[in-house]
Amino acid sequence: MSAAPWSGDEIMTVTAARQLADGAVCFVGIGLPSAACNLARQTHAPRLVLIYESGTVGTRPRVLPLSIGDGELAQTATCVVPLPEVFAHYLQRGRIDVGFLGAAQIDRFGNLNSTVIGDYERPRVRLPGAGGAPEIAAHARQVLIVMKQSPRSFVPRLDFRTSVGYLTGAGSRRAAGCPGGGPRAVITDFGILRPHPETEELQLAALYPGVSVAAARAATAWPLQVAAQVEMLAGPEPHELEVLRALDAHTRQAHARPVRIAVPHSGPSPRGLS
Asked: Are the C-beta atoms of residues 200 and 178 closer than 8 Å to each other?
């Protein structure tokens, strides 16, 4: 892939975008998931409905948001609702078609860790934490996970289980009462992992151009199983790269501009404030 006319992030983003159907309702995270959803919306899925955790529904950002609190999301949303309503009315009632998640660690059954690396009481690294991920993982009709693949992140045992995948597999998620469908695809910088239909263990299902099964296995800290037929994925099309790179460029330009806040006042300005 080093000689390919795209980066690892670009092929991950394009591949993730291709998983989204037009008209789907998608609960979006920041970073690559947000880039993938907005790429899909600007290409093959113009009726994609994006919901961010801050309560923005049907948002159509012109640039990628810095966080879920970015004003761009509220300014371009169909409506803005209270955060509890996003979870109670949309997510927990089964109205979210796709939840997009990332994490620091994933295990062979798609369980995720975004809480700590090391012992919980004395961690080596304190991660950002759960946020809405546990609810999304439990309730979305399907979950897409976007993560770079390495033995440090694709681990045989999580340091902490933040969000549920298929628990221990073979129907254990369903037996625990999780209403959503679970992770249907893990998009990495090597290809796509999907759950085995019976064991629910993640297996290598697709590879990018120029990537080998051996390379994907070497980037996984458990004995990675391989599907009977491994799909060879097409690389990004020129128009997909053009849209994605334009979106990135507009985002960099927008975030480079200084923020100016107009402060209304009725009297003389305080010293130094204009």
From this structure: no
Alpha-carbon gap, residue 84 to 129, rounded angstroms:
18
The string of pLDDT tens digits covering residues 13-30 is: 999 999 999 999 999 988
Q: Is 242 a catalytic residue?
A: no
Q: Are the C-beta atoms of residues 15 and 233 closer than 8 Å to each other?
A: yes
226: which residues sit within 8 A by CB, 6+ positions away? 203, 204, 213, 217
Whole-Å CA distances, 177 to 111, 173, 174, 223: 15, 7, 5, 28
Residue 217 is encoded by which pair of tokens?
Answer: 């296995």
pTM: 0.88
End-to-end CA distance of the chain: 52
Indicate the SS3 state at residue 206.
strand
Q: What tens digit of pLDDT does each residue of 254-271 get?
A: 888 777 777 776 666 556
Q: Are strands 98-101 and 25-28 parallel, antiparallel or unpaired?
A: parallel
Q: Specify the fold of 8-256.
A: Glutaconate Coenzyme A-transferase (3.40.1080)
Q: How far is CA 273 from its chain centroid?
A: 40
Q: From the candidates 10, 53, 135, 200, give the one annotated as an active-site residue.
A: 53
